[in-house]
């Protein structure tokens, strides 16, 4: 069991505020200070420093936080393993909005059929899911956007096309346009942090004027709300094709092809490298490739 003062350190390392840490731990601020002073004297290193009025971790503090987080997680897993019970394990799966609303409902294999586990599903955008993985608040994630993280194990399971959609009554419906013509129209975009947004940024890197233009456009954090604006012919919008399949089939939405550009994006199963049940989850989540 870790010395209780290390728990104080972990909370302060997260909050970077002595008052909030004391409130969370239900102790006085002076007690928090004494805990940190004890650790610094015992370890013979400085763990925190002030930059102006802002508290921050030193390099040694960052290292200790990283190592302690792993140790704390291992201890909690060990405690679970030592408890003799027939209770099922619980897993929290984070899924991006496109996957949660339009991909998963089409496949009967999800949530996985696991007699030894329960699965809760949390829907968020790509950036928030990666943060939750970092914080170990979710066990793994299904993400519909670019992921560049060497500390995560990444498994592609699906590939979709990113399209510019509009009402069939829009003057550009079905008309191929050059990339530089994008900013002429009222383009509606997903919020910052969405996989769609990250994918667009990646594809338009060679076009800085387009990147600048898109940053000035309206952001909508709900896919169905964005689609309602398109259906009412109030602009055009970039969406994954899977999220507008029904509207395309019915003719209620059409696409605007971009000249000499087709944008595709793989969807990923993302797991932390230190996740203890990794092989079990990978076996259960053998998501078929439906490209």
UniProtKB/TrEMBL annotation:
<dbReference type="Pfam" id="PF00126">
    <property type="entry name" value="HTH_1"/>
</dbReference>
<dbReference type="InterPro" id="IPR036388">
    <property type="entry name" value="WH-like_DNA-bd_sf"/>
</dbReference>
<dbReference type="InterPro" id="IPR000847">
    <property type="entry name" value="LysR_HTH_N"/>
</dbReference>
<dbReference type="InterPro" id="IPR005119">
    <property type="entry name" value="LysR_subst-bd"/>
</dbReference>
<keyword id="KW-0805">Transcription regulation</keyword>
<comment type="similarity">
    <text>Belongs to the LysR transcriptional regulatory family.</text>
</comment>
<dbReference type="InterPro" id="IPR036390">
    <property type="entry name" value="WH_DNA-bd_sf"/>
</dbReference>
<keyword id="KW-0238">DNA-binding</keyword>
<dbReference type="GO" id="GO:0000976">
    <property type="term" value="F:transcription cis-regulatory region binding"/>
</dbReference>
<dbReference type="GO" id="GO:0003700">
    <property type="term" value="F:DNA-binding transcription factor activity"/>
</dbReference>
<protein>
    <submittedName>
        <fullName>HTH-type transcriptional regulator CysL</fullName>
    </submittedName>
</protein>
<dbReference type="Pfam" id="PF03466">
    <property type="entry name" value="LysR_substrate"/>
</dbReference>
<keyword id="KW-0804">Transcription</keyword>
<feature type="domain" description="HTH lysR-type">
    <location>
        <begin position="1"/>
        <end position="58"/>
    </location>
</feature>
């Amino acid at each position: 069991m870790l010395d209780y003062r290390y728990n104080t350190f972990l909370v302060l390392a997260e909050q970077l505020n002595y008052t909030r840490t004391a409130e969370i731990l239900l102790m006085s601020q002076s007690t928090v200070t004494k805990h940190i002073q004890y650790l610094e004297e015992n370890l013979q290193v400085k763990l925190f420093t002030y930059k102006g009025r802002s508290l921050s971790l030193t390099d040694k503090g960052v290292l200790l936080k990283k190592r302690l987080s792993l140790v704390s997680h291992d201890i909690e897993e060990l405690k679970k393993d030592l408890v003799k019970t027939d209770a099922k394990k619980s897993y929290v799966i984070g899924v991006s909005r496109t996957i949660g609303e339009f991909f998963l409902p089409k496949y009967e294999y999800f949530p996985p059929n696991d007699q030894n586990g329960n699965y809760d599903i949390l829907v968020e955008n790509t950036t928030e899911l990666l943060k939750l993985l970092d914080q170990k608040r979710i066990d793994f994630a299904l993400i519909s956007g670019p992921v560049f993280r060497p500390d995560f194990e990444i498994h592609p399971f699906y590939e979709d096309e990113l399209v510019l959609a509009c009402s069939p009554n829009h003057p550009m419906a079905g008309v191929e346009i050059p990339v530089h013509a994008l900013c002429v129209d009222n383009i509606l975009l997903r919020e910052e942090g969405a996989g769609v947004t990250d994918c667009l940024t990646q594809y338009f890197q060679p076009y800085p004027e387009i990147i600048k233009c898109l940053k000035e456009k309206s952001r909508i954090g709900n896919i169905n709300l964005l689609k309602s604006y398109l259906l009412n012919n109030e602009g055009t919008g970039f969406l994954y094709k899977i999220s507008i399949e029904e509207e395309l089939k019915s003719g209620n939405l059409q696409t605007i092809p971009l000249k000499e550009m087709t944008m595709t994006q793989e969807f990923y199963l993302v797991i932390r490298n230190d996740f203890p049940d990794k092989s079990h989850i990978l076996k259960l989540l053998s998501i078929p490739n439906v490209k």
